[in-house]
Design brief:
Length: 246
Amino acid sequence: MDISDILPFAIAVLTILLTTGLVLYVIRRLSAPKEKVVLLCGVSNSGKTVAFLRLMTGMFLPTVTSASANEGTPQLGASFVRLVDIPGAEELRRMIILEKLKKSVSGVIFMIDSSTYYKESKEVSELLFEVLCLLKSLKAKGAKVLIACNKQDLLSAKTSSSLKPSLEKELSVLNKTQMFALGSTTVTGVESHDSNTRLLDDPSGQFAFDSLQMHVDFCDCSSKTNETDLKEETTLSFVKQWLNGL
């Protein structure tokens, strides 16, 4: 048989194989679970990195203050989440939070050290205010927020039910201050008269998390104890459930 007779057949077979391979690749990519990005943020020493490592490894590991973002993709049931642990240092966290929120995010876990909250309530509420305003200004209205009241294994820890009204009061004060702080800016870099730099437009109104367009949940948790602990609030069980529900 002459090679000129075989060549068209060989080309046809090769074309079919390449086309089939390409179709299978596209189907596999389209059917693969979509990765969801979740930011883990809070002030220094709130326990973010310990929680991050616990979610990654299942173990309690000692940490040092983070100088850069940590990222990992734990598989939680049917949900594939890329968790980004934001450093607690003020200048680093502002830059990284803004950079990450400009991209698509599915949620934000805001971690609070519930054992020392009343000593650092100003810093905690200011960061939370900035994060919520950023979510609003960047139109990330589909993103969910979990405020995790961490370190519930400590006797001095306050529960989420007691911290929630305190945070709402602090955010109300910050909202009023922002409305009247002419010419000042927030982490968004937008002048204060822009409605995106405040949570409420009514200066006399009291802020409540239920008034936000984004969904905000609260939970009690701890990264120190394992899943066999009898009290769910002293583990990361609620955090895992929330991540699985995204």
